[in-house]
Amino acid sequence: MKKILEVRGLSKIYGRGCPQCFESTGPEADTNICHHCGSVVAAHNVSLDLHEGEILGIMGESGSGKSTVVKNLFFDEAPTAGEAIFFDNAQGAQQWDMFALNAARQRWLRNHRFGMVYQNPHLGLNFNVSAGGNIAERLLMSDISHYGDIRERARQLLARTEVLIERMDESPKKFSGGMQQRVQIAKALATRPPLLYLDEVTTGLDLSVQARILDLILEIQQELRTAMIVVTHDLGVIRLLAGRTLVMKYGRVIESGLTDQILEDPQHAYTQRLVASAL
Amino acid sequence: MNPDYELPLDEAAYSFGFLDEYAKREVRRCILKAISIPGYQTPYASREMPMGRGFGTGGLQVTLSLIGQNDVLKVIDQGSDDSVNAVSLRQFVELTCPGIDTTESTVDATLIQSRHRIPEKALTEDQVLVLQVPYPDPLVLVEPSEARRKVMHGEGDYSRILTKLYEDLVHFDEITISHRYPTRINGHYVIDPSPIPRYDVPQLHQSKALVLLGAGREKKIYAVPPYTQAEPLVFDDVPFRIEDFTNAQGQRYACVRCGAVDSYLDEIMPADSQERAQKFWQCSDSDYCNQQLAQHKLLAGEAA
């Protein structure tokens, strides 16, 4: 299996930070706020590997830093420390040292190679343009400028994600939550990215809609061999989607391994509690 | 400061060109920068002028910093030399720049300040066109933060303007921008070419004359240097269209005054009429219209 993403020692501090930040926070300290300087250590020393076509789950309670990791990897925010290497197999096995790139290059990677689906459709979609327009925007960002082609691609993508084609020229404002999420997935997939980040995609949707969106994600993974990082606090989602899982608490990875192992035989006390408390 | 500088003969309390020499130098420096980076919006210290911002103060400051004793100035407002804005700006320049010449003829002018039109007659290498700009940034429609707009300009990221065009095509089957059509200069920066109609946009492409655009309220100067590419933003399969002034039968309206069928026309409805039949069309460029009329008279005279 080809590696697609390698993250080493990723850290993110909100606030000015001090030398004691990392020692005075974490699961042992039972906090992620440094009492010396008041900064929030959202993630520290997160390392992970992701291979082609693989789904990696990141789970943990709210505030554990799982979204922060994904936001850093999608260039929504800049990390305090650490490095990430993206293996671009589409262009003859090129490697990108992600955080060392300049802003324009990062934007290029983001538009051409990555996709992101946010929990809140307001972050991922532009509600002032139509559903088709949202997909067009992403295609235009990746330098496709043929109107007929764009329209056709948007139609295909929306059909694939089971959004009614007749409604593609309506604003996503008028759509239900599940449909908005489908449009977001279609938008993220528009450039056929080899790497997709899913940040709490099913949270807040009702169960039948959740199930269909999860089915869609699995189908896409089978079909396009897209590698994905799935962030969620929902153990069911992790169990269904992820082959491997990281468990995070107070910004640290406290346990990682095969999903089955983690859910059936958790080693860390926190993970044990988390699994036991699941409904 | 110009050492040879003398107060005008009337001993007015201001310099030639109203602005003091330092201010003019600063504007000229910004003009040079704007020409060096075609399409880039150069910030400058827009001065208070004795007229409201939005009345052409940006264009006026550019004009006043460039004008010299040997210049012949033409001021146009929507193609006309005689509308209020043009007349008051011309009078102001005449008042503050004693010794310069003004004209209404496009051919005779060396410096042309214009609001919302480019003259019909093609400009030459010896001419400079100054356009008054209300909104310099084409990205303002899609991105409210100026800091982020600057990054977008720097990276040449105009996909969100194109998304707007896409939406237009979806909803109306054509692009509905009638003026201020976003235009890419020299393959990178996209400018708002001031509220000139689509009809005038092709004139910017490989223009022989230098085109300077000045925004007074927004404090920006940008330029389309001579012989520079200026391409309106379009999709590969949807060509750029200009106004064609044809009626339902596909015939082109002619100017009611001079009969021209190759100029940009204003649609005029007499104020007291309710009937569409009384609508007529007239050249927007009054100098062009007059030239056409004079030529017809000449030809008629020869024939008689």
Number of strands of chain A: 10
Specify the CATH homologous superfamily of the largest domain in chain B.
Bacterial phosphonate metabolism protein PhnH
Overall geometry of chain A comes to: globular
Order of helices and strands of chain B: HEHEHEEEHHEEHEEEEEH
CA-to-CA gap between the ends of chain A? 35 Å
Order of strands side by side in the largest beta sheet of chain B?
A: 1-9-8-5-4-2-3
CATH structural fold name of the largest domain in chain B: Rossmann fold
Question: How much helix is in the residues of chain B?
Answer: 25-40%
Write down the oligomeric state: heterodimer
Number of domains of chain B: 2
Mean pLDDT of chain A: 90
Order of helices and strands of chain A: EEEHEEHEHHHHEHEHEEHH
Helix count of chain B, per DSSP? 7
Describe, in short, the structure shown:
Chain A is α/β, with parallel strands linked by helices and 279 residues long. Chain A has helices at residues 66-73, 103-112, 121-124, 131-141, 147-160, 177-189, 207-224, 235-241, 259-264, 269-276, and strands at 3-14, 40-51, 55-59, 81-88, 94-97, 114-117, 195-199, 227-232, 244-249, 252-258.
Q: How would you explain this protein's 3D organization?
A:
The complex is a heterodimer of chains A (about 280) and B (about 300). By secondary structure, chain A is α/β, with parallel strands linked by helices. Helix content of chain A is about 35%, strand content about 25%. Chain A has a domain at about 125-190. In chain A, the strands form two sheets. Chain A has a six-stranded mixed β-sheet, sandwiched between helices. With about 300 residues, chain B is an alpha/beta fold. In chain B, the strands form three sheets. Chain B has a seven-stranded mixed β-sheet. In chain B, strands 7-6-10 form a three-stranded antiparallel β-sheet.
